[in-house]
Design a protein that fits this description.
Blueprint (H helix, E strand, L loop, with lengths): L14 H4 L4 H9 L5 E2 L12 H14 L1 H4 L9 H15 L8 E4 L2 H12 L5 E6 L3 H8 L4 E8 L2 E2 L1 H9 L6 E4 L13 H14 L2 E5 L15 H4 L4 E6 L11 E4 L2 H12 L7 H12 L2 H27 L5 E2 L7 E5 L6 H10 L2 E2 L1 E2 L12 E5 L5 H20 L1
Parallel strand pairs: 1-12, 3-4, 3-6, 6-7, 7-8
Antiparallel strand pairs: 2-9, 4-5, 8-9, 10-11, 11-14, 13-14
Bound molecules: pyridoxal-5'-phosphate.
């Protein structure tokens, strides 16, 4: 076999990419291992994909609107989809964004990248929940930001800790938060905490990025107000249809102060220029046909069953000393063990036993989480959940005994 020459190009890599961990790509790869019971990736179940309706809409679009659907789109998005998204925000958030306050993005991660590109100079500080979505940590670090963790408790981000950071002279430029069914903890921020966060950030002049990736995936009727509806002058809401519609079209939105949205549109002009028009037209027709709410009802019933099952299974199979969150929506539960539990080592043993999860460490910007792990319940069947948690319980019990 031919041997490869030694690596020559790494010295040429840009400084901002050298620390990139690749952990996200590893998780995506783990989630697709066919012989595994996977609690790893935050993937929607393909059972929720609206295949028949998409087939119908596709035929219609190709017959009647190919010139738009197959063409480039304006950078802020097609006017029809922006109108449909604005109408939906009026219904769900009680506020309709003005035209200049809304843009279509190529998924949520695109919105985070555009915000970083538009707002962050090297060394600027960004506060994130600790733990948080590791794709967001990567997105901000990709623009050489100094990412700082702020603790979370059962009510969401610790606003008092954030204020202490500001008072100590380390006011961040941005605060990134996932208020609903957070990734990775499953925790939802209380209404009081939301008001306090908006108030604190307004006083300190900090822009909030509100990631609502899991907001619509709720198992209860409780819907605390969005941060954007409380502070449209200081909040950019980044939404996605990846978990609700399907991720194959990579679509999302950003709603925020017109000045910030305009700068994000500029930033998009020299990245992918526009989200794909075909997906945009599909989503617009889907929303206008009233299909999203039907899909959400079915998806939420499925994910609620799985959530209930994993919580019940954890109760049966976890040894003493292990605690976990009890989400009311979204895809994730978060486990915490005693300090001596090493979840990175456990992940390798679990993999050998045919179970995948994500250990806690990568969700923290500066250490922590070594005794924690994330379980996604969105993709495993109920029988697999029982079997996977049984195996995991046995591995944790044996790890704690040794
Ligand atoms: C909190 C959060 N935000 C954003 C994303 C990515 O969304 P998108 O597929 O729209 O880029 C994810 C996906 O895992 C997520 O968990």
């Amino acid at each position: 076999m031919q041997t490869l020459p030694p690596a020559r190009w790494s010295p040429a890599f840009a400084r901002r990419t050298r620390g990139a961990s690749g952990e996200l790509a590893a998780i995506l790869a783990l989630a697709s291992g066919s012989d595994l019971i996977t609690f790893a990736g935050g993937f929607p179940d393909p059972e929720t994909f609206p295949v028949a309706i998409l087939a119908e809409l596709t035929t219609c679009l190709l017959a009647e609107d190919a010139a738009v659907a197959l063409q480039y789109s304006p950078t802020p998005g097609l006017p029809g989809l922006r109108d449909a998204l604005a109408g939906r925000l009026a219904d769900t958030d009680g506020r309709r964004p003005a035209d200049a306050e809304l843009m279509v993005t190529s998924g949520n991660i695109d919105a985070l990248g555009l915000l970083a590109k538009a707002l962050l100079d090297a060394g600027d500080s960004v506060a994130v929940e600790a733990p948080t979505y590791l794709g967001a940590i990567d997105a901000f670090r990709g623009f050489e930001a100094d990412v700082r963790g702020v603790p979370v408790d059962d009510g969401g981000i610790d606003v008092a800790a954030l204020e202490r950071l500001c008072r100590a002279g380390s006011t961040p430029k941005l605060v990134y938060t996932i208020p609903d069914h957070q990734n990775p903890t499953g925790i939802t921020m209380s209404a009081e905490r939301r008001a306090a966060l908006v108030d604190a950030c307004r006083r300190h002049g900090v822009l909030i990025i509100e990631d609502v990736a899991y907001r619509d995936l709720t198992f209860t009727d409780e819907r605390p107000p969005t941060l954007w509806s409380l502070g449209p002058d200081i909040v950019v809401q980044a939404g996605t249809t990846s978990k609700t519609f399907f991720p194959g079209v990579r679509l999302g939105w950003a709603a925020g102060p017109a000045e910030v949205i305009a700068q994000m549109v500029l930033a998009k002009q020299n990245s992918d220029q526009c989200a794909g028009a075909f997906g945009q037209r599909l989503l617009e027709e889907y929303l206008r046909g009233g299909h999203m709410d039907t899909q959400l009802r079915a998806s939420n019933a499925l994910y609620a069953r799985r959530c209930h099952r994993i919580l019940a299974s954890l109760g049966v199979h976890m040894p003493a000393g292990i605690s976990w969150t009890r989400p009311h929506g979204g895809f994730f539960a978060w486990l915490t063990g005693p300090d001596r539990l090493d979840t990175t080592a456990l992940a390798a043993r679990a993999r050998d036993a045919g179970v995948a999860f994500v250990p806690g460490r990568p969700f923290y910007p500066h250490g922590g989480g070594a005794n924690q792990l994330r379980l996604a319940f969105s993709l495993a069947t109920e029988d697999d959940i029982d079997e996977g948690i049984r195996r995991l319980g046995a591995l944790i019990t044996s790890a704690l005994e040794n």
